[in-house]
Amino acid sequence: MPQPIKFLMVGAVGYVINLAVFAGLTEAALAYAAAAAISYLLSNSVMFLGNRYWTFARRGPGLLRQYVRYLMVGLLVLASNLALLALLVELTPLDELPAQAIALLAVTPVAFLANQRWTFTDRDAPAT
Fold this sequence. Notes:
Elements: H1 3-27, H2 32-55, H3 63-91, H4 96-119
Helix pairs in contact: 1-2, 1-4, 2-3, 3-4
């Protein structure tokens, strides 16, 4: 199965986790930006494991280094997500949850490319 498809499948799990946590936190009256940050960081951690072990099939040493890189990419993607989310919430009639759903989808290609080309590089691949 091609990496982009695997990445999207792992991302779909993270997407559901993100939106569920986001909905719960905003329902509990947490500001949408804080809810987006918390839900993104939680789902990002889950997606790291799926992407490391399945999408990019990395095993062995380098877990901490890869996680730090994944988190750095995630923080960049989170900043983009928050900016787009704020624009959608403040400048359109969209409610917070649909705006978050759209913002997450919009930043997915950037996350894939950054993780493919930097976080999980070929030099991290196990020897064959």
